[in-house]
Amino acid sequence: MSFIGPTIWLTALWMILWRSTTPGTVVTGIVLAVALTWAVRRSDVHRRHHRVHLLPLLRFFGHMAVALVKSNIALGFEVLTPTDYTTPGLLEVRLPTCSELVLTVIANSITLTPGTMTLELRPETSTLLVHVLHLRDVDAARDEILELHRLVSAALVPVATPDERGAELT
Fold it and tell me: Which of 7, 103, 107 lies closest to 48, judged by CA?
C-alpha cells in the first residue's frame, strides 16, 4: 500500500502539467504513475535503505552550487573566446567501496556539471570513467571526485535492513 501516496501525487502532477482534468488525462496519469512507482520499487538501488543527514546534504548542495557556477563560467569563457583552451581527457577514478545509490548520485552529479560527463560506472569495483573537458591536472580532478564521494557518503549513509543484520549475526 506504500505506492498509493506517490501514485496520487504523480497523477496530480501529471494533470497540473497538462492543465487538464479530462478522463483521458486522469487515466493516462494513473497508468504512468503506477508504472513509474512499480519500476522504482523494483530497482535494486532502492532496496537498500539510506539515512539522509541534513547538514552533510546541505554541504553537498553547496559544493555542487559552487561547482556549477565555476564550470559554467569556464564553459562560457570557452564559448565566447576565439581560442580553444580545452584539454579534454579521460579520467578513471576508483572510489572507496560504497552503495550503488551513492555511486549513482556521484555519477549524476559529475554529469550535471558542465564540462564533465560520466561515461562508465562499474559498481562491482566502485570505478568511474569520466570525460573532462578541461583536464589540466589529473590529481586535482581525481581529488575533486574523491571529495564529491566524501560529501555524498556523509549525506547518504546506508542502514542495514533486518535481513542484513540477521546475516551479520550468523
Answer: 103
Q: From 146, 37, 135, 140, select the one nearest 95 (Cα to Cα).
A: 146
Q: Which phi and psi angles does 119 have, rounded to 5°?
A: -95, -30
Chain centroid to Cα 135, Å, comes to: 22
Cell numbers standing for residue 64: 555542487
How would you list the strands of the sheet with 89-94, edge to edge? 89-94, 127-132, 116-122
Among 161, 149, 167, which residue's Cα sits nearest to residue 60?
A: 149
pLDDT in tens, 63-96: 999 999 999 999 999 999 999 989 999 999 999 9
CB atoms within 10 A of CB 13: 12
Q: Which residues pair with 156 in a beta bridge?
A: 52
* Cell 557518503 found at: 153
Which segments within 31-115 are labelled E, that is strand? 49-52, 89-94
Q: Which cell goes with 55?
A: 547538514
